[in-house]
């Protein structure tokens, strides 16, 4: 019995490759999350010029996707509990695809905004369903490492979107509104997302349903088959099924009343979690991924170079994420968060100083220009190695499952 228990959460080598494939396929939702979130960076100035709109209207079109994100994230869990995790992924893949096509072929500004909301809904679904599915399928011994696939996929998606934007801009002769494949370059940038979206949908047909969901709808035999598939035939399947069912029956069903806990001032843990999430966004990281090209062009940087700098910051984002994944268990969550906060503050202060300089011939002076460029990369690096990863880990650990 002791041998069976000790082996219950460990996938054997012959099964580990299959489990990694399953987690990677589910994490394609995270890739699309990152790709769709940041691809708009390459289209900002072209949209402003095409529709002749001011900064306020432009900001609304860029940010409106977050409305869809909020709705998608709020409803994905219930959808997944009703129809299954895999069906939920397939719906997200369809929405990503529709959004990419619609955004590439808008006939008006409101039309573009609508398709961005649709894409945002898919992002919200992917942000919920990917980590949940991986946690439910992954053997306990590998759950932490496989769970990090989602965050890794997000930052890779951000980087690939910037690389694709840069390549398409160069193919269009450096003009965001230049003709490319019969469309303007920015339209092609938004439309290319069809490729990973279709791949995500195809992969969803190649991976099994979550054992937890199958047990919730009474399909015990199929759940046992999948558990054997991902954890090995020699585990105690009965014990694993019982363990999952016990967790399902004993966990608390959360409601909005939980925001008050046992009293607003007596149980602040929920509000601490909300605060961490809010400040993770309020530090300003989205400016780096939505508006960095615009920022560099505003101080005279060539569009092609500005797109390249957006790509290099996304590479730094990946580097920082890898650093966080290596040190989050060694250094600890709070020390990393504090280190990141200090680093981000220094980077933003230097950037503010550099951009406060008077422009010379439409450009920053050489010294300030280099300081701004380095400081922007420093800011992204320290965000990625701290709050970008640590907040998700802390939220997963500070609450009951």
Show the helix and strand layout:
Elements: H1 2-7, H2 13-39, H3 44-51, H4 55-63, H5 65-83, H6 85-104, H7 109-137, H8 143-171, E1 179-180, E2 183-184, H9 185-191, H10 194-204, H11 211-216, H12 220-231, H13 237-250, H14 269-282, H15 285-290, H16 292-298, H17 303-327, H18 333-355, H19 366-384, H20 387-398
Antiparallel strand pairs: 1-2
Helix pairs in contact: 2-6, 2-7, 2-8, 2-10, 5-6, 5-7, 6-7, 6-9, 6-10, 7-8, 8-9, 8-17, 12-13, 14-20, 16-17, 17-19, 18-19, 18-20
Structure commentary:
This protein has 401 residues and is mainly α. The protein folds into two domains: 1-251, MFS general substrate transporter like domains (Growth Hormone, Chain: A, Up-down Bundle), CATH 1.20.1250; 254-401, Up-down Bundle (Growth Hormone, Chain: A). Helices cover 76% and strands 1% of the residues. It has a two-stranded antiparallel ribbon. Strand 1 and strand 2 (183-184) form a beta hairpin. The radius of gyration is 23 Å and the shape is globular. The protein starts with a helix and ends with a helix. 41% of the residues are buried.
| Helical percentage | over 70%
DSSP strand count: 2
Characterize the overall form: globular
Our count of domains comes out at 2
Biggest sheet, strands in spatial order? 1-2
CATH architecture of the largest domain: Up-down Bundle
* Uncertain residue ranges: 1-9
CATH topology annotation of the largest domain: Growth Hormone, Chain: A
Mean pLDDT: 84
């Amino acid at each position: 019995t002791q041998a069976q228990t000790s082996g219950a959460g460990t996938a054997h080598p012959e099964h580990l490759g299959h489990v990694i494939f399953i987690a990677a396929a589910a994490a394609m939702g995270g890739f699309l999350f990152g790709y769709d979130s940041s691809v708009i960076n390459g289209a900002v100035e072209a949209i402003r010029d095409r529709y002749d709109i001011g900064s306020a209207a432009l900001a609304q079109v860029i940010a409106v996707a977050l409305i869809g994100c909020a709705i998608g994230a709020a409803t994905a869990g219930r959808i997944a509990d009703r129809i299954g995790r895999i069906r939920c992924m397939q719906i997200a893949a369809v929405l990503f695809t529709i959004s990419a096509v619609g955004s590439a072929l808008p006939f008006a500004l409101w039309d573009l905004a609508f398709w961005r909301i649709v894409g945002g809904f898919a992002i919200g679904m992917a942000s919920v369903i990917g980590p949940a599915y991986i946690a439910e399928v992954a053997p306990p011994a590998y759950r932490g490492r496989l769970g990090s696939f989602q965050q890794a996929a997000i930052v890779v998606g951000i980087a690939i979107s910037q690389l694709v934007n840069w390549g398409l801009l160069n193919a269009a002769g450096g003009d965001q509104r230049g003709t490319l494949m019969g469309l303007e370059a920015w339209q092609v940038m938004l439309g290319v997302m069809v490729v990973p979206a279709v791949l995500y949908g195809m992969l969803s047909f190649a991976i099994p349903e979550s054992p937890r969901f199958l047990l919730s709808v009474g399909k015990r035999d199929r759940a046992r088959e999948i558990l054997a598939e991902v954890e090995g035939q020699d585990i105690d399947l009965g014990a694993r099924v019982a363990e999952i069912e016990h967790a399902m029956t004993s966990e608390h069903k959360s409601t909005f009343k939980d925001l008050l806990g046992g009293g607003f001032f007596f149980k602040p843990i929920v509000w601490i979690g909300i605060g961490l999430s809010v400040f993770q966004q309020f530090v300003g990281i989205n400016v780096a991924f939505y508006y960095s090209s615009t920022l560099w062009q505003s101080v005279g940087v060539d569009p092609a170079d500005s797109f390249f700098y957006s790509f290099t910051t996304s590479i730094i984002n990946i580097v920082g994420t890898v650093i966080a994944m290596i040190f989050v268990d060694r250094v600890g969550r709070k020390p990393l968060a504090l280190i990141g906060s200090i680093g981000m503050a220094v980077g933003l202060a230097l950037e503010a100083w550099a951009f406060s300089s008077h422009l010379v011939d439409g450009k920053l002076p050489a010294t300030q220009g280099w300081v701004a460029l380095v400081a922007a990369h420093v800011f992204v690096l320290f965000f990625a190695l701290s709050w970008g990863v640590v907040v998700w880990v802390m939220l997963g650990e500070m609450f009951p499952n």
